[in-house]
Design brief:
This is Lipase-like isoform X4. With 288 residues, the chain is of the alpha/beta class. The chain has one domain (8-282): Rossmann fold (3-Layer(aba) Sandwich). Helices cover 20% and strands 27% of the residues. Strands 10-9-8-7-6-3-2-1-14-13 form a 10-stranded mixed beta sheet, with helices on one face. A two-stranded antiparallel sheet has the order 4-5. The protein has a two-stranded antiparallel ribbon with strand order 11-12.
Length: 288
């Protein structure tokens, strides 16, 4: 495992044990950005999770976006668990100290779906500016109307897909039913391999602005879990299976604690030595 970036300070860790979800909020001083990261699906639960995505249907209207529909499970995972309140609290604390810095939201697999909803939430409900969303191997999360709204509201979004990764192909896309089918938002960057004899190179292709470029990941069959758990040569999976319950040192209680359901929220104030941006940026803060 790589060492944390120099100058990166974690200020919030949220573990929702009931739904097996984790999120981190930190500040990367060298990037002058706040980073919100969502953990993806555990490797040993991916198969069951993928099977669920074959039959899940659009079943909720997104508020304030006529015609937009989203996947209930992903929407619920972000909006109706302990994850969202913890993130918003950490964002406000970081904002108070650092001022108007960029916000970068990222996640892999189901974590990518949650990252997308988080990026949209920060823009729509908290007037965020300078927001960026970068996801890896995320599934489709809404219909074409939702994808259109999303691309307008969160234009600085990139979805990285890899080879024959199965998850970006789910839930399925049915071009003959454009009003009902799931539809990716743009912009996709597709990783694929090309070979010259014994040499194999990975290529990045920047796809069109439709969200469903037929020359990118849709040009191949989505049948690989192996391509889902490795991106840019980095394994995005746990080495061994384990439950979501974690054991904590009693000394961590000073940073937070568990609720009655065993969900954990650990918080720390950003470094008091951090340099705040010029005060005139406060008037144009990322969040209201």
């Amino acid at each position: 495992m790589e060492r944390p970036r120099q100058g990166f300070e974690v200020i919030e860790l949220i573990v929702d044990v009931q739904h097996c979800l984790q999120a981190y909020v930190g500040v990367a001083k060298d990037l002058n950005a706040m980073v919100i990261a969502f953990r993806g699906t555990q490797e040993h639960s991916i198969q069951n999770w993928v099977e669920d995505l074959y039959w899940k249907q659009l079943d909720i209207n997104y508020p304030g976006m006529p015609g937009a529909m989203v996947h209930h499970g992903f929407y619920y995972a972000y909006h109706n668990t302990t994850i969202r309140p913890g993130i918003l609290d950490a964002v406000m604390r970081a904002k108070d100290l650092y001022g108007d810095i960029n916000v970068m939201v990222t996640g892999h697999s189901m974590g990518g779906a949650m990252a997308s909803f988080c990026g949209l939430d920060l823009v729509v409900n908290h007037e965020a500016r300078n927001g960026q969303v970068l996801t890896f191997g995320q599934p489709r999360i809404g219909n074409a109307a939702f994808a259109s709204y999303y691309s307008d509201l969160v234009p600085h979004s990139i979805r990285i897909t890899n080879g024959h990764d199965i998850v970006p192909h789910l839930p399925p896309y049915y071009p003959r039913f454009p009003q009902k089918t799931y539809h990716h938002f743009p912009r996709e960057v597709w990783l694929y391999n090309i070979g010259f004899g014994s040499l194999v190179y990975q290529v990045e292709k920047v796809c069109d602005s439709s969200g469903e470029d037929p020359s990118c990941s849709r040009s191949v069959t989505g049948n690989s879990i192996a391509d889902h758990v490795v991106y840019y040569g980095v394994g995005l999976m746990a080495e061994t299976w384990r439950s979501c319950k974690i054991v904590t040192d009693p000394r961590l209680k000073e940073y937070g604690g568990e609720d009655v359901n065993g969900n954990l929220m650990l918080s720390r104030n950003p470094s008091a030595a951090a340099l705040r941006l010029p005060s005139d940026s406060d008037a144009n803060s990322n969040f209201s």
